[in-house]
């Protein structure tokens, strides 16, 4: 056996052995390249197609496989098999991400962080797609494209614009709660390992008796919360823009497996009907005094993907992917994401994106979807591609029917004001959050806000700043005054905002 036969032979994509990998076939040693050098064409053509469309949001991310282990019994709330017994283990894949930046942006940007978790359960894949914050900037999906546009690039300058950001926020008072979190040091986590994760939205649990409960998911980091200061985060952008990615890979490689404790808040249907906040408003939290955290289990990340593109870049998450025992709620933003997220994945990866290994359900799947680009599972073979039919025994299983969900008195379709009466207190929770901060955290948050708002420019600068200051004043008098002072604004202009609301 020769030396070369001991190693793997290089071939074309169709399997033909390659004679020369590095030199093109030419007419003579200095002559032009021949059209018949097919492998040259294959290499260049594939190279031109190596990039798939990057995600519109959450473009830059890191991911790892792991295990979720149940430690406490919650079967009285849900029949989901993933929670069926203490000690049960379920394989998972978790992707972290920044939100607003492009794929090449820095990991330490001031930004929410995505926390998208896929459970490979025997009842199908369950995607819990959230962030490292329990709330969001908006509560109606019709506002989502506009909001994201403000986080991207100005169509004239093609640069990030503080003016766009604060103009939108100042005109969307429901954003204030998330702004307060983002502008604290929680907006610049030290690493993905040192932050919490949240489902953010309100979801449903359904138990064996077909009873519905509303639920919020909290993943509490066992590594402890650690954040950069604004100065440290800015410096890290230049030192290592891939710092969070590197940190996650290296921690898992050395066996320092990061862990999170999953806890849930449970609300009954009756409590939802009378709670002081709209329980389906993603700009609000549920008080943990009213709805204490209930421990469920532990998530551990313990396996780095062997190829970033195959696993992390091609990972596709959608809140539409639920399993028996877990369902949706009237949360408007969640309802919008049920539509938007799978559509984004079909655009990015194709109609058969759930056949990609990282997205594929490892248990049996059965439906009549056929054809489409990159169909790689046999396409149903010679079985019927329609239902009902006389040739197979497939059936829709009635036992998985969910209980009806009452929608209250507002059953007529209409365009309701998202900030109408009873839905327009955008200041109590942000104010409470600020007052719960330590004095040091308050100073840091104020400094970060002043720094961010100082970037507002143009003829509308004063108008935008004054409008946003009114929101801060209504949340907390001291907060508003400190920001106004930092921006050099005469607070007498805001006398109206200082009145009780």
Automatic annotation (TrEMBL):
Keywords: Heme, Hydrogen peroxide, Iron, Metal-binding, Oxidoreductase, Peroxidase
Cofactor(s) demanded: heme
GO MF annotations in UniProt: catalase activity; heme binding; metal ion binding
Active site: 58, 131
A GO cellular component annotation in the UniProt record: cytoplasm
Binding site for heme: 341
Enzyme class: oxidoreductase
Keyword Metal-binding carried by entry: yes
Annotated Gene3D superfamilies: Catalase core domain
Catalytic activity: 2 H2O2 = O2 + 2 H2O
Annotated GO biological process: hydrogen peroxide catabolic process; response to hydrogen peroxide
Residues annotated as domain Catalase core: 11-395
Protein family membership: Belongs to the catalase family.
Protein name: catalase
């Amino acid at each position: 056996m020769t030396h070369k036969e001991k190693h793997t032979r290089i071939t074309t994509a169709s399997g033909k052995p390659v004679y020369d990998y590095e030199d093109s076939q030419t007419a003579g040693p200095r002559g032009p390249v021949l059209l018949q050098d097919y492998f040259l064409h294959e290499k260049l053509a594939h190279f031109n197609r190596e990039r798939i469309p990057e995600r519109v949001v959450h473009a830059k991310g890191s991911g790892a496989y792991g295990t979720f282990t149940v430690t406490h019994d919650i079967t009285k709330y849900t029949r989901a098999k993933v929670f069926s017994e203490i000690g049960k283990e379920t394989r998972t894949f978790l992707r972290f991400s920044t939100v607003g930046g492009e794929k090449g942006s820095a990991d330490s940007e001031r930004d929410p962080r995505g926390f998208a978790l896929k459970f490979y359960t025997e009842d199908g894949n369950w995607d819990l797609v959230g962030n490292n914050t329990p709330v969001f900037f908006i509560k109606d999906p019709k506002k989502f494209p506009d909001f994201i546009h403000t986080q991207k690039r100005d169509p004239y300058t093609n640069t990030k614009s503080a003016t766009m950001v604060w103009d939108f926020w100042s005109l969307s008072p429901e954003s204030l709660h998330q702004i307060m979190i983002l502008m604290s040091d929680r907006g610049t986590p030290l690493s993905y390992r040192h932050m919490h994760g949240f489902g953010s939205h309100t979801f449903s649990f359904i138990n064996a008796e077909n009873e519905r409960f509303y639920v919020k998911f909290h993943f509490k980091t066992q590594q402890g919360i650690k954040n950069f200061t604004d100065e440290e985060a800015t410096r890290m952008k230049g030192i290592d823009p891939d710092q969070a990615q590197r940190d996650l890979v290296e921690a898992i490689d050395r066996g320092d497996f990061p862990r999170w404790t999953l806890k849930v808040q449970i609300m009954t249907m009756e409590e939802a009907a009378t709670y002081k906040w709209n329980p389906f408003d993603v700009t609000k939290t549920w008080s943990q005094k009213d709805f204490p955290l209930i421990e469920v289990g532990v998530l551990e990340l313990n396996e780095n993907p062997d190829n970033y593109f195959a696993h992390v870049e091609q990972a596709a998450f959608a809140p539409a992917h639920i399993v028996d025992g877990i369902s949706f709620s009237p949360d408007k933003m969640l309802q919008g994401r049920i539509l938007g997220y799978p559509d984004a994945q079909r655009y990015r990866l194709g109609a058969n994106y759930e056949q990609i290994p990282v997205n594929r359900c490892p248990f049996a799947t059965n439906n009549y979807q056929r054809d489409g680009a990159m169909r790689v599972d046999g396409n149903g073979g010679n079985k019927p591609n329609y239902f009902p039919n006389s040739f197979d025994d497939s059936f829709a299983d009635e036992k998985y029917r969910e209980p009806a969900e009452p929608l209250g008195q507002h059953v007529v379709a209409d365009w309701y004001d998202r900030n109408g009466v009873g839905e327009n207190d955008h200041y109590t929770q942000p104010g409470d959050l600020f007052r719960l901060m330590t004095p040091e955290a308050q100073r840091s948050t104020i400094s970060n806000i002043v720094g961010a708002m100082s970037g507002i420019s143009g003829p509308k600068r004063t108008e935008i700043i004054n409008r946003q200051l009114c929101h801060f004043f209504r949340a907390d008098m001291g907060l508003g005054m400190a920001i106004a002072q930092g921006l050099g604004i005469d607070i007498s202009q805001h006398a109206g905002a200082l009145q009780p609301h």
